[in-house]
Write a structure and sequence with these properties.
The chain has about 400 residues and is an all-alpha fold. The protein is built from 18 helices and no strands. Helix 2 packs across helix 5 and helix 11 runs antiparallel to helix 17. It is globular and about 50 Å long. It starts with 6 loop residues before the first helix and ends in an 8-residue tail after the last helix.
């Protein structure tokens, strides 16, 4: 029996998505070891992560022309190679060079979402679209699991410089393995010279184009806002779970890390399961509504947890949160692609990702400021949970097209 035509595209995009996610998780794991040796301040990790997000945002703003003219798969591969090269800057005791490296490494994250959307929209059967997009997005937590389990062990056994080199090889291998697939999967506009435009004073139009593309129809705009609302809870779970478990529930770092890993595993399973369920019931609205309710409930419960809670209850909560607060991405991205004009899928995917990236940068800072001012994690998680319920109001009510 011949393999389905979508299998190779899905596999290639999944591998590249997992690789770009690994790059993102690499930074906060390797940075503490480098900071200790070079004498950087503890807050430098936050700045490095911020510059990574800024690189992704820059790619979303200025890279749409490059995506169309070179092709989505090739763009992701090129930005991964640039990220590998920039990792050498971590070997120098300069925080400025490290910030620059993180910016360059973030480019692949900005390229992966619109590139994956454009390729999968062309190859995905309509009846399997949500499942296929969810499989692609399952690569994000999977990349986090690989980084979270592998990099600390390498740092402990061989030192952070060897771990840096090994991580570069782990990024290079899947990039090279998928290299030849670009000619098969990409649609390019090779007649025009390709370029990437860094955002600046003259690039406001570059930002306006993907955001304006979301206004093509009301369902497209509403689904983009849905992604931003889901990202509020997801960013807080990813950013504050470990520190909350340590500070408020008296967990050790190792035990908190295990809980975090369970949450990431829940994200892998949840994204695929939600995509299957969405296709099964032929309604992205219904599946995302279920995810929003579970996300809100688990977020509020996390804020209400106490040291008296048994370990199994906390682990179960983390798994359910990963299966809901971090499971929405594939279905939401598939809906953005479905509701987009065929020739504007890279722009609408980029526009939706820009909104989500802004949330990922701003919400954790606001959450941290609120906790620092009030000392109340329960109130902070409560507000985040309630905001997730706004998804139920914003979601488009039309059924998914079969």
């Amino acid at each position: 029996m011949a393999a389905p035509g979508w299998l190779i595209p899905v596999t290639a995009i999944f591998v590249l998505q997992t690789t770009t996610a690994f790059v993102g998780r690499f930074i906060p794991i390797i940075a503490p070891a480098a900071s200790n040796e070079f004498g950087w301040s503890g807050s430098s990790i936050g700045y490095l992560t911020a510059f990574y997000s800024l690189g992704g945002l820059a790619m979303l703003v200025g890279g749409s022309t490059l995506l169309k003219q070179v092709g989505g798969v090739r763009t992701v591969q090129l930005t991964l190679l640039l990220g590998i090269a920039s990792m050498a800057f971590f070997l120098q005791p300069s925080i400025s060079l490290a910030l620059f490296a993180c910016f360059i490494m973030g480019l692949s994250n900005g390229a992966s979402h619109p590139a994956g959307s454009e390729v999968l929209q062309r190859f995905s059967p309509p009846e399997k679209r949500n499942l296929i997009f969810s499989i692609k997005q399952a690569g994000v937590p999977l990349g986090g699991v690989i980084a979270g389990l592998g990099i600390p062990a390498m740092v402990l056994l061989t030192g952070w410089r060897t771990a840096l080199f090994a991580s570069a090889l782990l990024i290079l291998l899947p990039t090279l393995l998928t290299w030849r697939l670009s000619t098969r999967l990409d649609e390019t506009r090779s007649m025009e010279p390709w370029h990437f435009t860094l955002p600046g004073l003259q690039s406001l139009r570059s930002l306006r184009v993907p955001l304006q593309s979301l206004c093509h129809n009301s369902g497209l705009l509403r689904m983009s806002v849905v992604g931003s609302l889901f990202a509020v809870a997801q960013s807080c779970w990813f950013t504050f779970t470990v520190i909350y478990l340590i500070d408020e529930l008296d967990f050790s770092l190792g035990l908190a890390g295990i809980v975090f890993a369970v949450m990431q595993v829940g994200g892998v399973i949840g994204r695929i399961a939600l995509g299957w369920f969405s296709d099964y019931v032929h309604s992205a609205t219904l599946s995302l509504s279920v995810a929003a309710i579970l996300s809100a409930a688990t977020t509020v419960l996390l804020g209400l947890s106490t040291p008296a809670w048994p370990l199994w209850a906390v682990i179960t909560l983390a798994f359910v949160a990963g299966s809901s607060a971090a499971s929405w991405n594939g279905v939401q991205i598939a809906e953005i692609a479905r509701r987009s004009p065929p020739n504007q899928i890279p722009e609408t995917a980029a526009g939706s990702s820009i909104l989500i990236n802004l949330v990922n940068m701003l919400v954790p800072a606001a959450f941290a400021a609120f906790v620092a001012f009030s000392g109340r994690y329960d109130y902070a998680f409560g507000v985040v949970g309630i905001s997730t319920l706004l998804v139920l109001i914003v979601l488009p009510r039309d059924k998914q097209v079969k």
